[in-house]
Amino acid sequence: MSSRHGGAARSDDPYFPQHGNGGYRVAHYDLELDYKPLPGRLDGRARITAVATQTLPSFTLDLEQFRVARVAVNGKPAKFSLRSGKLHVHPARAVHSGAEFVVDVRYVGTPRPVRSTWGDLGWEQLDEGALVASQPTGAPSWFPCNDHPSDKATYRIAVTTATPYTVVANGKLVSRRVGASATTWVYEHASPMPTYLATVQIGPYELVPFRSHGGSVPQRAAVPAGLMKRFRHDFADQPAMMETFEELFGPYPFGEYAVVIVDEDLDVPVEAHGLSIFGRNHVDGHRGSERLIAHELAHQWFGNCVTLGSWRDIWLNEGFAAYSEWLWSERSGGDSAGAHAARVRARLATLPQDLVLADPGAARMFDDRVYRRGALTVHALRVVLDDGPFFALLRDWVATYRDSVATTADFVALAERHAGRSLKSLFDAWLFAPKLPVLPQPGA
Ligand SMILES: [Zn+2]
């Protein structure tokens, strides 16, 4: 749909047609956020560098419930209005097709999570600090953006907040200016990321490096002091996991990896770009969440480095992350992936078979069957290809679509190249038909 002023207002994502905007691509977000935890007020400035893909007399950004004080385009004040989650911008002069332009938005308000089928998304105030978990559509709860996973951009995120708190955001901490009452933390993320993986975590965290080494990049954690002992025990194998995944999937795609343990229970941990967020319930002191630690780490390759081009391809994120749980199990002395697969297939066979993996529908994107059947699909492919070609395919997938977006069709094509033949019957059965197929047997 185009707005009546000729700016393309919507993306073409069938799952979330209200999110994402046509007519331009974002190259960089520069966010300056001043957050007062009590009362929870966010004073924000976003400078967005974008390139017009058509001439734009007007355009839109996704932004929820803030008061917008000022919008400028290329330094000149622009007319604007905010309604129904869209910031409509009318620059003084139309932006020409192909031109780079900078949108400068000043906004203020109390960020509130976006309500969704999956609970609250986006910026959430905590008793002490805040957390951000946006997947899939929570990003407009804290900054104006082109909220579609296919529009990846680089970020600079500067957060000023009360001095006792620690701030963690995506990427590398490039500066920290400590004041008596407020401290400014500046993070830069040089590899392109989608809006849903942008995050800010604010809380009374201690920043600690991992003691043991493993893998090619530094690993850090932000942990409340009271959870430190359990954290040290439960996450002790993460460096070994990193080493294993680098061997199987290729080099870790970003400059560093951080984990944040928030002092609240979370239903599930969530992945962000270059970091993952766990709840205090995920550090039980008995390694009860080890498979989830593997799952979130694997997302750095599957979902974050190679990002889905459309939300219907969610299995490309979750199927591979779920399969990585089994890979870690078999590589760390637990059950083999084959044993996990047989058990999970038997369990899935007792559940309704009414879900098409490659297009589950928006409401069922995060249905457990997407995860489990996704993992089974990856395992079926491994059995059919054999380990050599299978892991070569995974590494090629990450290398080919690194920092970019990809679709199910892209994956099928690459898999067939590695197989040297058509895999149509395999993928038709696992991805495009609801009936649960039988797992192929090794050597059959
Ligand atoms: Zn996941």
Automatic annotation (TrEMBL):
Gene3D superfamilies tied to this protein? Neutral Protease Domain 2, tricorn interacting facor f3 domain
The EC number of this protein is 3.4.11.2
Q: What name appears for this protein in its UniProt entry?
A: Aminopeptidase N
Aminopeptidase N-like N-terminal domain: which residues? Answer: 28-197
Q: Which InterPro entries match?
A: Aminopeptidase_N-like_N (IPR045357), Aminopeptidase_N-like_N_sf (IPR042097), Peptidase_M1 (IPR001930), Peptidase_M1_aminopeptidases (IPR050344), Peptidase_M1_dom (IPR014782), Peptidase_M4/M1_CTD_sf (IPR027268)
Q: Which GO terms describe its molecular function?
A: aminopeptidase activity
Cofactor list: Zn(2+)
Which reaction(s) does the protein catalyse, per the Swiss-Prot or TrEMBL entry?
Release of an N-terminal amino acid, Xaa-|-Yaa- from a peptide, amide or arylamide. Xaa is preferably Ala, but may be most amino acids including Pro (slow action). When a terminal hydrophobic residue is followed by a prolyl residue, the two may be released as an intact Xaa-Pro dipeptide
Domain Peptidase M1 membrane alanine aminopeptidase positions: 240-430
The record's family statement is: Belongs to the peptidase M1 family.
Keywords, comma-separated and alphabetical: Aminopeptidase, Hydrolase, Metal-binding, Metalloprotease, Protease, Zinc
Enzyme class comes to: hydrolase
